[in-house]
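Weekly puzzle thread! Below is a chain. First person to post its structure in token form gets bragging rights.
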Amino acid sequence: MQTSSLILALALGSASAFVAPHSAPASSALASRNGWTPDESAFAFGLPGTIAPVPDFDPFGFATNADLDTMVKYREAETQHGRVAMLAAVGFLVGENYHPLFGLDGKEILAIDSLTEVRLVFPAFFEILTAVIGILELNRAVQGFMSPKDAQEKMFKSEYYPGDVGFDPLGLKPSDPAEFATMATKELQNGRVAMLAVAGFVAQELVDRKPILFNDFGYGDLLDASNPLY
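Winning reply:
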């Protein structure tokens, strides 16, 4: 169901797709940053994510004018939002055609209305969702953020790589820094596309009140003109 997909999106959006190294090498800062060494002379301090045909794309100068801590904050936000958007995009397409949870199986529900529908049949849903998000965000804060008493000059720990909070259940994280940079770039690019796609999905459904696959591809039972969402 779309709701369950969005729950998963919000929850996993606060967890990284990569796991931190299991051992703590003597040269801890370099190892824990997945081979990335901040370079003030490079775009975005040398973080992965810039590729042809528009390398170093920063029309508003966010990266150009950022110090290291601010750049890590920007990349942390971009990575996390991209992960949520990728899951949400899948949730739109799958959830509008298959949503067996909360007794809503077989009911035609637009993705943008799914949370409202769940709230009607399961009033405690948002309280539970808030608790889950809070736990995951607390873990992210412990992994990468300075404690409040030490955060006067910077927000993030020196050894923290933006988005890497130790979640890699399938063991996909490369150990080679170059391979890691390639994977990180792929994740960022897919996340950027997903953020644009989800924004388009929401806008489209708000305007025409039709499911995405039906509207764009003529797919599904909604072709029946007697359906209230037709």
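Puzzle host: Confirmed. Bonus trivia for everyone else. Confidence is low (pLDDT under 50) at residues 1-30.
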